[in-house]
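Researcher: I'd like a structural prediction for the single chain below. Treat it as a standalone chain; there are no partners to consider.
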Amino acid sequence: DGHWGFHGAETPLDMEPDIITVRMGKQNIHQQMLDWPEYFSTPEAVPKTACTFNVGMFLLADEIIDNVPQGSKEFSVLTTYGVEPVIDAIPSSAIKKHKNARAWLTKKSARALLEFLNGIKDNPAYTLEKSTLNRLRAIWEKSPHLEEKIANIKMIEDVLMELKMI
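Model: Treating it as a single chain, here is the predicted structure.
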């Protein structure tokens, strides 16, 4: 059991397999509050650090099952499974390197991915619809700090541009 999402672009994907402690940054804290409001109702309730496997350790597993029920994970699911590149900004994209990995997604968590895959089926140069992009941006709208909100939305847009999805 592990959690890809505690990693950020600052955790290189090519580190030797290990268990690491990561600082829970603003994005992690916000995500924990979205995903687990019954446990983390305030930023102060989220632990300051988390222990997790790094990507190299995850990839040593005999099997990886990626279970993603939350609609708040739309961006992660899209950028993990929508295109081939594995990039540091999306640690879970490394799952594509594993020979025995599968994903269990809900319609909510896979909504943007399904929209994207349906679009590229008919047009390989397809980019995300404005409504999809606005929905992905809205994941960060609840952020109480304007600077944080702007930075997170910029990160979403930068990653989507790098992956040629917008």
